[in-house]
């Protein structure tokens, strides 16, 4: 089977390119070879590749910048997935698309399930919700995976930022009243590959985050503790760190449905994934 992967240089895309090779021939694209803002390019690349599986790991991910560029975010996150879905339907291909915990408003205080009604607070969240709706409206076979608080050993993410600031001796003040689930990109890619190996593969919308929950402050504290860095993290409220985009105060996802219905292994506790990553980073430092 030929697999077309969009977003090979992103955190999840990088891991997917390696995880999907056991399923078929991977044609991996980056922004230079497939710009999701260019709908004609999407159609051309898909029709040239003729994939049986399309995996969209590309996205506009600048959450705060999206507030001043809502049209750009909507084009890439909201409209482009619909173009990919139309092409998938034309080919009879399965489309895998990634969404976010930020489609929810955070009003709940228990993990969000796939049946909960989205209500995004930000331009980014609205664009990602539109992307889900565009995929469903196209009528192709699809697997939408919602996740959040993604990190890995490359790219720009919270883990690498905290490590860098701690090594520089910078004061660390981190929001303590937003709760979610840090999830390693490698674990998302592994779960995706395992789900796609099911016969038949699952279709529909599922949550795909690590187990457990913590605040950004709790996440930062765990990063420094597991990395063996002697730094103190001050807990602050959201009001002390204003951002252009509103974040949900609670965006934990209940990710039990996919394992329950397919038998795939769920992603383990968030702290285990973090410990594994930091162990690899320490080996790289050595």
SS elements, strand count: 12
In helices, the fraction of residues equals 40-55%
Name the helix and strand elements from N-terminus to C-terminus, one letter apiece: EHEHEHEHEEHEEEHEEHEHH
CATH superfamily: NAD(P)-binding Rossmann-like Domain
Under CATH, the topology can be stated as Rossmann fold
User: Helix/strand-derived class?
Assistant: alpha/beta
Query: Quick one: CATH class?
Result: Alpha Beta
Tally of distinct domains: 1
| CATH architecture identity | 3-Layer(aba) Sandwich
User: What is the gyration radius calculated from CA atoms?
Assistant: 18 Å
- Shape verdict: globular
Order of strands across the biggest sheet? 2-1-3-4-5-10
Output the number of helix runs: 9
User: Would you identify the regions where 5 or more consecutive residues have pLDDT less than 50?
Assistant: none
Overall description:
With 286 residues, the protein is of the alpha/beta class. The chain has one domain: Rossmann fold, CATH 3.40.50.720. 40% of the residues lie in helices and 17% in strands. The chain is built from 9 helices and 12 strands. Strands 2-1-3-4-5-10 form a 6-stranded parallel β-sheet, sandwiched between helices. Strand 1, helix 1 and strand 2 form a beta-alpha-beta unit. The longest helix has 22 residues. The radius of gyration is 18 Å and the shape is globular. The model has no long low-confidence stretch (mean pLDDT 96).
